[in-house]
Design goal:
- The protein is an all-alpha fold.
- It has helices at 7-30, 35-61, 72-86.
- The longest helix has 27 residues, at 35-61.
Amino acid sequence: MAGIYTEKEIYGDALSAQKACTNQFNMAANECTHESLRQTMMKILNEEHDIQKCVFDDMHAAGFYPTPAAEEKKVQEAKQKFSQSVR
């Protein structure tokens, strides 16, 4: 049946669309000179990130986006690396 998409393909498309959407709202927020508009863009950006996380969580739960468990040593190394860059 040509033209029928699988659930995995639909989720993948939704995730790609959300990633593109968050990129666009991020750029818009970065380029705002009016603070009220910037805050609105940041609010929408946050909401879009929440949607993206929901799509990812659904994909992961359905087994469409498997992620390996991280080794504790690597987690600690990453925390140390990034905590130093914030200072």
